[in-house]
Specification:
The chain is of the alpha+beta class. Helix 5 crosses helix 7. The model is unreliable at 1-18 and 397-412 (pLDDT under 50). The chain has helices at 6-11, 23-36, 107-115, 122-128, 292-304, 323-334, 382-392, and strands at residues 43-50, 55-65, 68-73, 76-80, 84-89, 92-100, 144-150, 174-180, 184-191, 197-204, 209-217, 234-236, 261-264, 267-270, 277-282, 309-315, 340-342, 357-362, 368-373. Strands 7-8-9-10-11-1-2-3-4-5-6-12 form a twelve-stranded mixed β-sheet. A five-stranded mixed β-sheet has the order 17-16-15-18-19. The protein contains seven helices and 19 strands.
Amino acid sequence: MLPVPSTLAAAALFAAAEPAKDPAAAAALALAHAYYRSDPPPERISIQVTTAARTRGDEIILDLTPRGFIIRAGDYLCWTGPDALHVTHALDQRGVFTLPFDARTQGPLAALHQALPALPAPQLALALDPQPGAPLTPFTAGVYWTSAAPADPARADTPVPPTTPDDAPPLAEHIELLGTSSRSTALLLLDAQSGRVISMRTEIDGGASRIDLTAEPLPAPPDTLALPDLSRREPVARLSDLRPRLADIRAGDPLPELTLARKTPDGDIAAALDAPGVLILFRRWTPGRTPLAAVRGSELAAQLRPGLSVHPVIILDAMESEPLVRIDAAQAALRPAQLLHSYAPRATIERFTPADQALIVYDETRTVRDEITLDPDSPLTAQAIRDRILAALSTSAPAPAPAPAPAPAPAP
């Protein structure tokens, strides 16, 4: 979640803004209001906050809906129902924070600002704020929009994202609005035809703090905006109660995003998981007390179920002195299986179990079908593991077998 510097937080306490004084600015804002209240496509919004101490960036995915919005902000997913705001966290599959609101008096935007640190995205106010002339963001309160004109490509402070003639309209099709207050200046760039927000820059205290925002439309809502099943979640009293929990993933839950990597001669690269699949997660690799049978059992299952992928993963400690030695030793024992690794136990194995070894089965929809804790003192045989995997996937349609190779043409 994007931090809120103290100078920016102070700016958010200014008095409410007045309607735009310039007729051209008022017309441009009216165009933007109309765009964001007419079922616009989802947007990816990139935000950079700069202060004297540091610069930090973050990303918001926003989809405006008839009930309000769905927002992915960092690890938080926020969305509105008919009379409540719901918030979940990517590393907490059990909790949900719910903030009721009265749509007649408060509305979803006020509930969002109450629940989360202020999000400097003008799209929200343009779509949802019922008050004419209300601040576009919590950080432009008190700003008077004094002018609107075609954006000038020669001005260095015009907040235009990098473009090429092939992927963006010419600058003549952009309108730049200038807004000022006693302590801040805002530059808002809109598409002149639609009113869509292209970028925005807000400077506080003569540039001592600055927020830069750019936005791009998306063809469809990404998978990261998929809403969870609240019937499987427990309400929490505070937003801070959403946190990583030990063993919170169970059979029937979606497979969470996992931080995994593959070692290559050029260094680590991020690893994606094919579906359906089997994850064999382990912290320890000791001769005679290893998940080797789990790997072999998974490979036997893959022979009987075409398309099943097998992913052994060694879980490392970020403070280990010789992690590469452990990776190489485990890889040598596992060949030909390709070993993955992770330095984030809280975001991998601890999502499933407090044990040191576990096998996770997930199907084509990336839904967890079974979790098997691997006890080194009472190891399962490879055949028993094979049967357990196949039983877990028996309700899923098997992946299609590869088509047979065409018969060779007869010799002339």
